């Protein structure tokens, strides 16, 4: 009896547990990620200016943009389109929060009267002008806007919402424009800056220098330690910005179609050929069974070469093929002909262009063209002369232009000549166009015959057996390796595997080397998962037509820059410093002419001279553009020599032979304008970066998509 009582006492608790379990089973993913239920932070897409952006709000904006996209394009967005829509949604949040904060501080706004003026007043927005410009005439019609707005209430809700969104974007663009114009007004150049720029561009120097490149010392002879790299990094932290990235190595197991898959498809398409031949409604049968859409009516020029070669054998109801094009087999059923409204022809040409638009140059070009025409009429090869004389890209094909229609594809005189010909052959006159002088050979005369062709194209795809075999190999590899060392050892055993490296992958990456497609994101998310340790190996990921197994080899953190994050760059810098020390020690207290010093130094030392070099863009031949060397040269008096010093590419000794100061000018306005224009051109970028930095943006979208 006591057992029954205990069951009764705990039955309510048990029912509660079951109920909670059912709720978690149904919507567990959402609730477990919800901040409101568990106080977690899993649903936070990011943070802008201290304001959290949760997944639901962000996704709602993406869905809104998706609906607009579908209404405008009439199709669902692709994966690439979705990535762009998410970026657009994020930028809208940045604008609405970070930018708006700056607008509010300055009291910037767009009034209703201003918006009306932008849409239908005296200062209509360029976006509105573009939307209501007649595409046929290219004329903007203000009355079209007013009529559209009068009938807006009668339009479907989707179109009303689209217009409201359009106006909202107009306001945002105007606000940004006002803000950026204010910032541009704060950009100015002082007279001192303009004078400095003038001097840099117009002062000239003749320089003689000795140059010992760093590459003359073999890298393997200069040992660089980690402590040296760390010391260099500590002194140059501002030059090496931290970033959240991952580096992986990976192997792929291809899911390419096998010979059996190809043979199986060939047998399938032969079966389809019998069905296509017997089908009463062959166009519908072809549409239902084809992987590739082919127009029902084709000109000879639109046909693939193998089918075009079969035209002489065409008979009504005949099946032609299968023909293979790449990885697709095609079969065709011929169903008769009809006439097109346009004619199609094929021709080749030799184009002779005048060297200039003068009467004498044109006359010379015409004489050359006429001489070539006479050679061809005398039996010379048209194709050979086209390859050696034609000034057109078709020259490499012997002048062949392929098939074209009489619908304006070619310039009028050329088109008239080709479609005026009644048979194939050389046109016995020179044809002049705006491009020059043409010698034309009609290879296939005009025709307006359209062929009714019901086509089925089947693309070779790997069978499930082939996929299973590739997955088996990938699983077998993954099961035998747990660490980087085991990964490397296994690769050495299998010579068919090639290891690829992808360095410094950002968290939002949609591509890894040649790996593309939405499936790449699962590899990136694995690499950035907190549970993925260095040197750990992934399970197989299916990416396109291959399975990928990766090993995480490096992590970088934006808040903790380490030597390994920039090891290659740091090693080059430190090694060059050590090489500079060796070269400077070997040069010692150099004396005598630069040639004498170079001879004493030995192999690797160069002596060169440059004339009329300026400080702004000076190029020192073998030493390249070296700001340190240029600065020292312009700082010396003529006839003086610098001490040996380390430059960007090697050690130098500089002699200034001649120094020509920039002539004095009364007005530096031109150089002030140059500086201001160069700075103003980058204002939008600088503003955007400054606002984002001030807003302390944290973007966590990559954890969700």
UniProtKB/TrEMBL annotation:
Record localization: Cell inner membrane
Family: Belongs to the PpiD chaperone family.
Cellular-component GO terms for this entry: plasma membrane
Keywords from the named record: Cell inner membrane, Cell membrane, Chaperone, Isomerase, Membrane, Rotamase, Transmembrane, Transmembrane helix
Protein's membrane topology: Single-pass type II membrane protein
Bilayer-spanning residue ranges: 12-33
Protein's UniProt name: Periplasmic chaperone PpiD
GO molecular function: peptidyl-prolyl cis-trans isomerase activity
Organism lineage string: Bacteria, Pseudomonadati, Bacteroidota, Cytophagia, Cytophagales
Coiled-coil region list: none
InterPro entries reported for this sequence: PPIase_dom_sf, PPIase_PpiC, PPIase_PpiC_CS, PpiD_chaperone, Trigger_fact/SurA_dom_sf
Organism (species): Fibrisoma montanum
Positions of the PpiC domain: 342-444
Primary location recorded for the protein, binned into one broad class: membrane
């Amino acid at each position: 009896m006591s057992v029954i009582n205990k069951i009764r006492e705990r039955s309510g608790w048990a029912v509660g547990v079951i109920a909670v379990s059912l709720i978690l089973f149904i919507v567990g993913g959402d609730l477990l990620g919800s901040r409101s239920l568990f106080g977690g932070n899993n649903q936070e897409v990011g943070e802008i200016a201290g304001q959290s952006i949760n997944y639901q709000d962000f996704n709602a904006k993406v869905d809104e943009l998706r609906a607009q996209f579908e209404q405008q394009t009439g199709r669902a967005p692709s994966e690439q389109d979705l990535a762009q829509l998410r970026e657009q949604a994020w930028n809208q949040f940045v604008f609405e929060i970070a930018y708006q904060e700056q607008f509010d501080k300055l009291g910037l706004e767009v009034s209703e009267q201003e918006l009306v003026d932008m849409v239908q007043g005296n200062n209509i927005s360029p976006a509105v002008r573009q939307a209501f410009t007649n595409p046929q005439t290219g004329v903007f019609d203000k009355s079209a806007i007013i009529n559209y707005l009068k009938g807006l209430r009668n339009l479907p809700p989707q179109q009303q919402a689209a217009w409201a969104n359009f106006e909202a974007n107009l306001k945002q663009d105007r606000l940004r424009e006002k803000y950026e114009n204010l910032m541009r007004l704060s950009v100015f150049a002082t007279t001192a800056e303009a004078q400095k720029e003038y001097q840099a561009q117009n002062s000239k120097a003749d320089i003689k220098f000795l140059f010992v490149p760093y590459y003359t010392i073999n890298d393997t002879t200069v040992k660089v330690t980690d402590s040296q790299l760390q010391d260099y990094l500590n002194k140059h932290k501002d030059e090496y910005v931290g970033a959240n990235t991952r580096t992986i190595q990976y192997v792929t197991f291809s899911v390419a179609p096998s010979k059996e898959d190809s043979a199986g498809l060939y047998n399938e398409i032969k079966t389809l050929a019998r069905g296509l031949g017997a089908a009463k409604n062959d166009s519908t049968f072809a549409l239902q069974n084809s992987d590739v859409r082919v127009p029902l009516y084709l000109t000879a020029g639109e046909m693939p070469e193998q089918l075009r070669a079969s035209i002489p054998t065409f008979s009504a109801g005949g099946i032609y093929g299968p023909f293979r094009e790449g990885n697709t087999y095609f079969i065709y059923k011929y169903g008769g002909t009809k006439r097109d409204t346009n004619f199609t022809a094929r021709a080749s040409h030799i184009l002779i262009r005048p060297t200039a638009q003068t009467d004498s140059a044109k006359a010379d070009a015409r004489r050359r063209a006429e001489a070539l025409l006479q050679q061809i009429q005398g039996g010379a090869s048209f194709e050979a002369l086209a390859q050696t004389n034609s000034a057109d890209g078709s020259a490499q094909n012997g002048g062949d232009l392929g098939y074209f229609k009489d619908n304006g594809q070619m310039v009028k005189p050329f088109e008239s000549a080709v479609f005026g010909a009644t048979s194939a052959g050389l046109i016995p006159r020179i044809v002049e166009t705006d491009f020059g002088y043409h010698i034309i050979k009609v290879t296939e005369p005009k025709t307006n015959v359209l062929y009714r062709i019901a086509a089925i194209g089947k693309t070779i795809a790997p069978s499930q057996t082939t996929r299973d075999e590739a997955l088996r190999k990938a699983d077998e590899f993954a099961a035998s390796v747990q660490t980087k060392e085991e990964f490397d050892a296994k690769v050495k055993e299998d010579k068919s595997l090639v290891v690829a490296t992808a360095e410094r992958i950002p968290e939002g990456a949609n591509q890894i080397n040649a790996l593309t497609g939405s499936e790449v994101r699962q590899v990136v998310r694995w690499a950035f998962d907190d549970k993925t340790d260095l040197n750990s190996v992934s399970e197989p990921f299916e990416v396109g037509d291959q399975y990928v197994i990766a090993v995480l080899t490096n992590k970088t953190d934006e808040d903790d820059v380490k030597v390994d994050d920039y090891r290659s760059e740091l090693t080059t810098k430190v090694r060059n410093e050590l090489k500079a020390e060796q070269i400077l020690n070997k040069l010692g207290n150099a004396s005598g002419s630069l040639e004498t010093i170079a001879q004493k130094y030995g192999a690797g030392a160069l002596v060169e001279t440059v004339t009329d070099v300026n400080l702004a863009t000076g190029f020192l031949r073998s030493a390249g553009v070296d700001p340190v060397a240029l600065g020292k040269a312009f700082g010396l008096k003529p006839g003086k020599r610098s001490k040996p010093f380390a430059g960007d590419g090697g050690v130098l000794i500089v002699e200034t032979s001649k120094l020509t100061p920039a002539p004095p000018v009364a007005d530096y306005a031109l150089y002030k304008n140059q500086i201001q224009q160069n700075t103003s051109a980058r204002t939008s970028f600088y503003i955007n970066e400054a606002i984002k930095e001030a807003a302390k943006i944290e973007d966590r979208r990559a954890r969700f998509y």
